[in-house]
Each structure stands twice: as C-alpha cells, then as structure tokens.
Design a protein that fits this description.
12 helices, Rossmann fold, NmrA-type_oxidoreductase, SDR family oxidoreductase, NAD(P)-bd_dom, NAD(P)-bd_dom_sf
Amino acid sequence: MTIAVTGATGHLGRLVISALKKHAAVVALARDPAKGADLGVAVRRFDYDTPETLPEALAGIDKLLLISGNELGKRATQHRAVIAAAKKAGVELIAYTSLLRADTTPLDLGPEHAATETALKASGVPFVILRNGWYTENYTASIPVALKNGAFIGSARDGRIASAARADYAEAAVVVLTGEGHAGRTYELAGDTAYTLAELAAELSRQSGKTIPYSDLPPAEFAKALEGAGLPPVWAEAYASMDVAAAKGALFDDGHVLSRLIGRPTTPLGDTIRQILAV
C-alpha cells in the first residue's frame, strides 16, 4: 500500500509522514520538492495551480491524505482539483483535514471546508473526513512574544477552547489511513480538556515564573497586532475572527472522539506550553 500526503512540508504534514512511514510506503507531495528532502520518503512535485499535472503525481497512490491548503479564498477550487485528479488516478481512499463542525461553524473558514466535503461526497471516491478542531500550537506559538511583552493577547473573551496538539491530529490521520472501517465516516476531533485564554495565560505564568496576564482586545486591534508580528493581513484577520467565534463556542467540543480514535488522552495544554518553553 502506498499513501500520499499533500502539504507534506508543513507542520502537520511532517508529523503525519514521520508516523506514517512506519506503517506503509509514503509519497510526500509538495509544491517545492526540495523542501521535503529531509523527510526520508519519496517526494513528488504537487502544485495546486497546475491541476493538469496532478493526476500524474498521484499515479500508483492507493490512499491520499489531503491536508487543507493555506491559500484562503482559493482552497475550495484547489481541493476540487486534487479530488478530481485522485479519481482520475484511481486513488482508493481520500482522507481530508476539514474543520470542526464545518457545516454549521460560525468560523469564516467554514464555507471552503464545507465545499470540499461536498465535492468529496460527490466524487464517488471513498473518503474519510477529519474535522480537526483547533491546534494548541496556534496559540502557544505566541508564547515568545507574550513573554517579551508581558501579556498574552487575544479576542476570545471567556470562550472555552478544546484544542489538541498537532501530533494528536496527525496520529488520527495515520489511524484512518492504515486502519479499516473508516470510509464514509466524518470525525469531529478536538482535545479532551477545554480552557480559556485567561487560563492559558495563567498556566504560562505558572510554568515560566513570570506574571503573564491575558489581555482581551477588540478584534480589529488584535488583527493589527498579529499583522505587526509578521502574519500576512489575510491570516491576521482570519485569526482575529476565529477568536471572536471562539467567544461564541465555535472551538469548544466535549465529544472526546479524538482520544477514542487514537486510543489515548489528547496532549494536555500544559505539556505543549512546557515544550515551547524548553525551546
């Protein structure tokens, strides 16, 4: 069995490949194959913007993990091209990393994920939908700036966030790609334990030995701060809108589907903070 992974050089893709290559032959798919030279698997060029080349890149692939792209506004079209190419190449199963409650979420990211899910269901190719909740690293990546500035900022108010580490979601992808009985299933995936950003800041304070309060900002001000920290404007706006949605419960889930799927508890927030501080 040969399994291919799109977005192979990204954070999630690398984690999936590292775990997956212990179970199957793996092909990494990347826009720039040179960036995947250290993955230890075969790497093929895979550029969403040249859809005519995609079927050839998927030749000989039995299963495909389609990790959602990062070009907001273009993803639904890009994903449809990948699904069409997979069907043409004879791929037997597509697993797709979607979004928690993609069909009902208030998050601005929802429509592109929902459109991809619709395309998958219409394709005739067996599929598994992994509706990934929030990655804890999306927040802990801000820890160095928070330590420098003496505050952790956001716009989530007291919304509870059931996040999990990327490694947890990567393990779930490996489970469905290497196991049986997952075709046709949609999994709502999130962390076992939810927290507010104030609680995250309190845990950061405890572990770092510094007082790092949570500062809740108006969304526009938060987006401006994110842009000032180096995020592209479109993603700064997206992250700010996600916090607004989090305040309304969009990132909360207590179904514990992820931990049941991977057969262990999800990674606690404190562990991920500890890893960041160790670096």
